[in-house]
Amino acid sequence: MITAWRIVDPKYADDAFSGEGPRRMGGRWTPRGVVVVYTASNISLATLEILVRNQRALRVPEYALISCHFPEAIVEAVDRNTLPANWRDYPGPVELQAIGGAWLKAKTSAVLEVPSAVVEEEVNYLLNPEHHDFRSVDISLPRSFRLDPRLIT
Question: How far apart, in whole angstroms, are the C-alpha atoms of residue 41 and residue 82?
Fold first, then answer.
């Protein structure tokens, strides 16, 4: 089993695995208008991902930390050799959204493993809540998570 993590504002904890945020806003790996859930392979990466995406992250006193567990059999990995040379740029190149969009459309797996642009040696997992294998994702209850105040200084 693989464990992945999400850190969200507590007011969004109940919907953390709905995919609604990326549907409204889009993301590095998916275009606006599609339902997907972004998770990280460990808590520290999830923390970094929130810090680089959100300028107000350090002003939120407390977050909700949620783990999920899923079998490796429902995971497909992006072939890093097919990524454009500038895949880590911000904002991400449109080719990445095309990769994620094609994966969602093809419905070849419930989970897509992608490299993190923040720490390229680590991975994030995109979860498709509309895929029939998503039911095998075990989502834990949220728990309180505070950022270390030293990150603010």
Answer: 21
Question: Which residues touch 109 (CB under 8 Å, ≥6 apart)?
Answer: 74, 75, 76, 103, 128, 131, 133
The two tokens of residue 85 are 């040379």
Q: Tokens 């002003």 map to which residue?
A: 59
Tell me the C-alpha distance between 57 and 63, whole Å. Answer: 9
State pTM to two decimals. 0.93
Name the residue among 41, 11, 20, 17 with its Cα closest to residue 122.
41
Closest C-alpha among 9, 127, 115 to residue 58:
9
Amino acid at 15: D
Which structural domains are found in the chain, ordered by start?
2-151 (3.90.175)
| 14-35 pLDDT, tens digit each | 999 999 878 777 789 999 999 9
